[in-house]
Amino acid sequence: MHDVAGDDGLYCPDCHRATPVVLDHTTGDTICTECALVLEARYIDETSEWRTFANDGGSDDRDPNRVGDSGDPFLPDQLGGTTITYSAPLKTQAKNAAGEDAPLLRRLDVAGASTEKSLVAAFKSIADMADRLGLVATIRDRAKEVFKKLDEAPKGLPRGRHRDAVYAACLFIACRNEGMPRTYKELASVTAEGVAAKKEIGRLTILIKKHLGEEDGKAMDLGVVRASDYLRRFGSRVGLGHNEVRAAGAAVRRLEECLDVRRNPESIAAAIIYMVVQRAGGSKSLRDVSTATGVAEGTISAAQKELAPHARTLFG
Which residues are in the TFIIB-type domain (predicted)? Predict the structure, then answer.
């Protein structure tokens, strides 16, 4: 990115006069616009890293300085500030004539209670899990919202459960709400227990849905999941080409319109992908598809056998 630096420019020894210059923020160089001589190197930009727009419209200060981390809308306003503490000698010196603490040296507890600190830790863990799964910011924020509602609910968090599984369950609900579902196995892969936490995440999802539903007075909606929601991601993992992905997508659409198959959407998606691989004569085996999609080989095989009689309808 290049910005013009000032109206008067800087003196250029090659041009022997003041010339307009530009600032190259990539290299940190100040460059003469007439002869391209680097007048200054390693320029340090002391302005804020991003604009806050706090003073737009009413002040000449268009670049308010950034102080501290960006705010999190799901945390209390005072959380994340600075805590001022002092040792015993300072506390003694802070006494005034009346024997009271001097106002400026009074201890400020703005870090929040332990519950608020645990909320910060939970949000950090949720964000880390979301990053490892490659989830977008909207899903991460929705999971934070679900966790905060659960934390504030009368019954609170389910007791005796691993926190990782609770965070994963919040992410599962968030993914469903945003129309980008992930399987329990995918979410379990980013917990401390690994895939073994899959059943626990499923149980916790039901508990969270029940807790928050009772609080709102209505059932918590997780949205409808279809095989097409998994298809593109599964196809990418298997290594399908563009034409194969299109064929699989068309097959899933025809299945959802014409057939009534009572199987999990991820099982149907994996089975359709396996059928596409077979029809294309690819080198991917059933085990390869199972490893890429996280669906068991037996489940894929059973679903494929159920769909095989309808191959003409699915693939035309």
Answer: 8-40
